[in-house]
Amino acid sequence: MSPRWEPNPDVRRGRSVTYSLHAHLVFMPKDRRGVFTDEILARCADIMIEVCDSFGAELVEFNGDSDHVHLLVRYPPKVALSVLVNSLKGVSARLLRKEYPAHIGRYLWGGRFWSPSYLAASCGGAPLTIIKEYIENQKRPG
């Protein structure tokens, strides 16, 4: 009896595309101020989940410390990562400032919540060396 084939849960299918896109994102508050408490981190995670859902993306993992947050996001190819990042940062900044004005006001002032810079790293799948080797071996002999 042959083993049963099980689909890979990380691979998604659309009408004309099969994909597995993941990004590791790191956001820091302006001037890397330690604004996050456990309660604010939990609320930030909830906001990030809602934003991802609105893009057809999924927040796979979220965590952080007082001065930064990490996100692992699975997103569809129709979504420009920079647009998703801008929405994640914009919506969370607006809602966190609104919901925690006294606490956040002690750490951040002015119009910005997040630093304008961020880390975005692609992740998942095989290591780059394996992919490079696979592509190199695709040349047909002759």
Concise structural overview:
With 142 residues, this protein is of the alpha+beta class. It has a single domain (16-136), classed as Transposase IS200-like (Alpha-Beta Plaits, 2-Layer Sandwich), CATH 3.30.70. The chain has 4 helices and 6 strands, in the order βββαββααβα.
Detailed description of the structure:
The radius of gyration is 19 Å and the shape is elongated. By secondary structure, the chain is an alpha+beta fold. The model has no long low-confidence stretch (mean pLDDT about 85). It has one domain (about 15-135): Transposase IS200-like (Alpha-Beta Plaits, 2-Layer Sandwich). It has helices spanning about 40-55, 80-100, 100-105, 130-135, and strands spanning about 10-15, 20, 20-30, 60-65, 70-75, 115-125. The protein contains four helices and six strands; from the N terminus they run βββαββααβα. The strands form two sheets. The protein has a four-stranded antiparallel beta sheet with strand order 4-5-3-6, with helices on one face. Pfam families: Y1_Tnp. It comes from Nonomuraea guangzhouensis. This is IS200/IS605 family transposase.
